[in-house]
Write a structure and sequence with these properties.
single chain, six-stranded mixed β-sheet, 31% helix, 28% strand, binds 1-O-pyrophosphono-5-O-phosphono-alpha-D-ribofuranose
């Protein structure tokens, strides 16, 4: 490896996805010892040998770092990509973090989705919710942005339905809610900055090729 090779920087969405991404990268021989130290408060980790850097960010910020080129590569859920609408190449479906974006609510709310009624929709994903109701269903709705525990919406009377991620369905079940409509399937994706894709074409394409081969 040449001495003046520049670093390729990865932005990973904090949490489950980051862990699975590091496991996947390890499978193709890319590791980062520094990152395994659970106690560390460091934000950025380096693999000097391979000239790679890694940092962890809040999921919605990952596409932002990649669009601006602060990270060359990002790994984040498709939900976040749809919601943030940032410019980047989506190059790989990593196959983990599989779940569905759905309209959910009490059984009784099913009727409200049939007649273009003005209803209240709570979601952590206002853009996805708006696109689905306005452009796909042609139903004018009132969208209320929440930051988590969205299932509370219909339970406490804030909204008629929610637009949220369903993985196992147990959160819905334990709260007396159901999937009423499916919006789209989701999973973890790898994204690449548009300039990096050209400037570092060889190294990035090699990485994509090896991951694709492994997947
Ligand atoms: C997500 C999502 C649901 C739950 C779905 O929440 O918003 O609440 O997971 O998973 P399940 O179908 O397997 O029950 P998350 O844990 O990310 O936290 P949040 O509610 O704060 O968004």
């Amino acid at each position: 490896m040449s001495k003046d090779m520049r670093y390729i920087t990865f932005a990973l969405a904090k949490g489950r996805l980051a862990k699975k991404t590091l496991d996947l990268l390890a499978k193709i021989g890319i590791t980062c010892e520094e990152m395994k130290d659970k106690e560390t408060r460091k934000l950025i980790f380096v693999n000097e040998e391979l000239k790679l850097k890694f940092f962890l960010a809040k999921a919605p910020d990952v596409p932002t770092y990649v669009e601006y080129g602060a990270a060359d590569i990002g790994v984040v859920g498709k939900d976040t990509l749809l919601e943030e609408g940032r410019r980047a190449y989506e190059v790989l479906d990593l196959g983990f973090g599989k779940c569905r974006m759905c309209v959910c609510g009490p059984e009784s709310a099913a009727e409200l989705l049939k007649h273009h009624e003005m209803i209240r929709v709570a979601s952590k994903y206002p853009r996805i919710a708006k696109d689905y109701f306005y452009n796909k269903k042609h139903q004018t709705v009132d969208i209320i942005k929440l930051n988590g525990s969205v299932e509370l919406g219909p339970i406490v009377g804030l909204s008629d339905v929610i637009v949220d991620i369903v993985e196992t369905g147990s959160t819905l079940k334990e709260n007396g809610l159901k999937v009423l409509e499916e919006i789209c399937p989701l999973s973890a994706r790898m994204i690449v900055n548009q300039v990096s894709m050209k400037m570092e074409a060889d190294r990035i394409k090699e990485l994509i090729y090896r991951l694709r081969e492994y997947l």
